[in-house]
Write a structure and sequence with these properties.
The protein has 334 residues and is mostly beta strands. The protein has two domains: 9-221, Jelly Rolls, CATH 2.60.120; 244-330, Jelly Rolls (Sandwich). The protein contains seven helices and 20 strands. The protein has helices spanning 22-25, 62-69, 71-74, 76-82, 107-114, 144-152, 217-221, and strands spanning 9-10, 12-20, 36-42, 51-52, 88-95, 101-103, 121-128, 133-138, 160-164, 170-173, 179-181, 185-192, 198-201, 244-248, 253-259, 263-266, 274-287, 291-296, 300-303, 309-324. Strands 14, 15, 16, 17, 18, 19 and 20 form a seven-stranded antiparallel β-sheet that branches. It has a six-stranded antiparallel β-sheet with strand order 2-3-5-12-7-10, with no helix packed on it. A hairpin with a 4-residue loop joins strand 14 and strand 15. The longest helix has 9 residues, at 144-152. It is globular and about 65 Å long.
Length: 334
């Protein structure tokens, strides 16, 4: 059996009522509409499995590859926990208009209702128009009764927390946190493999046929975490040419790497795939005695667990989002 190699995938593109054209203008995605909202870069969601775009395995989808290569592709510990289900969904999102206010269930509720994983996610803001805002959580102490009163009176925005954002901002969104992406924002999203969303408020917006979109008020209320943390935005510090932690949670770890000099990687002890999303600039990944794959802004690559030694070489600079899953014993948040 031939050795595995770093995979690039054909993006899965979705038009959305709130989408725009930045996925093409900023990230060079092959879109033709002015309302493309999402580019699924790596997906194991049933029915939307990503297809390999490079190398001798081109044309195979991610689930098929895991069935054949198992731990060599995802890592033995990942395969033992998730089987052929790839555990992460990686996206770029372009919000030309505000998204609906929504919430995602946690693992327990999602398993009970949908036989699915829950959905914890993170956002990395790549570009934001002046004054652009995200909605994350509540701006005051809120209980179930107060929340329902505001929903029923169509006053939910009054108790929501608005965060003005700029490029480089990071937010962790644990399952249960009410949120929405505001207009004029392009971001990278890392999340559990789940496509379950409860829409709780949509600004009385109508679709192309003039219909109000469905709301999930009753389903959402049991999913909401009403706690209010002191701070929603993630603080982090980037060390040049070294992986710097953005988010580490039980479901994924994400690191920022700002490169202007080559960086050698050895992931032998991790027993997990690695994902790189190129956020700025360009670079190449050298492996297997000078074989290489190139990345430019907007590209995403999956490095199989069996490819444990490689180099990240900027051309001349690159900003990368590095994503993997830590063993539970090594993750203080697990």
């Amino acid at each position: 059996m031939k050795e595995l190699y770093p995979f690039k995938f054909t993006p899965i593109l979705f038009d959305k009522i709130w989408g725009g054209a930045k996925l093409k203008s900023e990230l060079n995605k092959p879109i033709s509409s002015q309302t493309t909202g999402e580019s699924w870069e790596i997906s194991g969601v049933p029915g939307y499995e990503s297809e390999i775009a490079n190398g001798y395995l081109s044309g195979n989808n991610l689930e098929e590859l895991i069935e054949v290569y198992m731990g060599d592709l995802v890592g033995d510990r990942i395969y033992n926990e998730f089987g052929t289900q790839f555990p992460l969904l990686v996206k770029f999102i372009d919000a030309n208009d505000v998204l609906s206010i929504q919430v995602h269930p946690n693992d327990q509720l999602a398993r009970k209702r949908h036989n699915s994983f829950g959905k914890t996610e993170m956002w990395y803001v790549m570009q934001a128009n002046p004054g652009a805002e995200l909605i994350v959580g509540f701006n005051c102490e809120v209980d179930r009764e107060t929340y329902l009163k505001h929903v029923n009176e169509k006053k939910l925005p009054e108790i929501l927390n608005y965060e003005q954002v700029e490029a480089g901002d990071v937010f962790l969104l644990p399952a249960g946190r009410v949120h929405a992406i505001g207009s004029g924002i392009l971001l990278a999203e890392i999340q559990q493999t789940s496509d379950i969303t409860y829409r709780i408020y949509d600004f009385d917006r109508r679709d192309a046929q003039g219909n109000l979109r469905d709301l999930h008020t009753d389903a959402a209320v049991d999913a909401i975490d009403f706690t209010t943390p002191e701070r929603y935005k993630t603080n982090y510090k980037v060390i040049p040419n070294f992986p710097s932690t953005l988010v580490s949670c039980p479901y994924f770890t994400s690191m920022m790497i700002d490169l202007d000099t080559p960086l050698k990687k050895d992931t032998t002890d991790l027993d997990c795939f690695m994902i790189y999303m190129c956020l700025e600039g360009s670079c190449r990944i050298d492996y297997f005695d000078e074989e290489m794959v190139s990345l430019t802004k907007g590209d995403t690559v999956l490095i199989p667990a069996s490819v444990t030694e490689y180099r990240l070489i900027p051309d001349p600079k690159a900003r990368l989002l590095e994503v993997y899953i830590l063993p539970k014993e090594d993750n203080p948040e697990a």
